[in-house]
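User: structure tokens for this one?
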Amino acid sequence: MQIMQSRDPEVSEDTENSFAELKLREAEASESQQRADMALLEAKKITSQYQKEADKCNSRMETCEEAREKAEAALSAQKKLTAIWQIRARQRGWKGVAKTLTQSQENVPVV
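Assistant:
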């Protein structure tokens, strides 16, 4: 024996409306999630680009710092060498830079 189910048109309509509303909300949520995912991917891409630029900058700064340290060491060594030569020159009668510069300027032809 088969029992016939009677359908209440109001219940069916309410159920269909609820189902349609749920489908609409699901579609909106899915679309919102896709936009969020795209925004996240774009943010990751931009972050990666900034990180690469920061890494390049840091590398250049390190190179620059190494060059500055080498130049500073070379200058210090040159100053020590100059001091040694000045001491030797004074021991042999050299009177100073001013006299030497004046004499060398006199020997330069004026154009």
